Amino acid sequence: MQALIRRRNIPTNGLHVVENGHVVAVKQMIYQWSAAAQGPIELLSFAALRARNDGGTQRADFCVLGFVESGAGMLSADFAEYALDPGSVVALAPGMVHQWRDIDTVVGSVVVFLPTALVTTAAQAASTELGRRIVWQPSEADRPFIDMARAHLVLESGAAQSAVAEESTRLALTLLLTRLDPMTDDSATGQPLFRSFRVAVERDFRSHHDAAHYARTLGYSSRTLTRAVQRATGVTPKAFISERLILEAKRLLAHDGLTAAACAVRLGFLDASNFSTMFRTKTGQTPGAWQRQFAPRRSSEAQATSR
């Protein structure tokens, strides 16, 4: 097997689980492609996913697409619950904390891939936005195109390994993601400036909390950026950045078990009190109170994993 990322003590089969030192219950999933995969893209059934899934909470460094053909189950993702029903599409972006539950009866397919597998910059940008819509039912108008694109991906990924087969699989995945892209059906959120802003925030939010940085980086005035973001989301660029910081803080507090001070450092705050004030203003709770809600869950999952 050829590894994309080499770490010590990584098992050599399936989706590889790495304990990163201070994660209590969340498993950091590091993607490595299997010998049968066409590059950094792998297709598997829900049956195979069940065999690799221990029921715990996971945080992956790769993208996941799921297609439910029959059966039912549940998915927890970033503090929300989603029902999996026949026809559901699942999209998980890198970094999302998630847990598959009660998927014993689910039949369907899962696509695991790295954003770099996609052949266009627009598709790579779309892969960072997958978490905007996590579980949904495609419209009747969209479904035939999605089904055809998925069938073509299955066909290409099953071909004998070669440079042509790998490139064709990348193209097929790019087509599928383009058909699934939740922003293409919304003229406001799909406009180029907002999409560029969203990608830049995802890249820089830990080190840059000010909207002016993104306006400069993208080559627009602050006023133009504000208009674009408000038209797409109804909030200012500053509020959008704050929401992304809060989501990451919740992940670190609830699942990684970091202290408020450690979160502040991880998220680029020079003063931990400023981080705590922002968190309380946005959530109505102190970081410690938020974290205590999830302490029993982390403990029970850690015990289940150690059995």
UniProtKB/TrEMBL annotation:
Keyword DNA-binding applies: yes
PROSITE patterns with a match to the protein in the record: HTH_ARAC_FAMILY_2 (PS01124)
Record's keyword terms, sorted: DNA-binding, Transcription, Transcription regulation
Cross-referenced Pfam families: AraC_binding (PF02311), HTH_18 (PF12833)
InterPro entries recorded: AraC-bd (IPR003313), Homeodomain-like_sf (IPR009057), HTH-like (IPR037923), HTH_AraC (IPR018060)
GO molecular function: DNA-binding transcription factor activity; sequence-specific DNA binding
Positions of the UniProt region annotated as Disordered: 283-307
Domain HTH araC/xylS-type, residue spans: 195-293
Record's protein name: AraC family transcriptional regulator
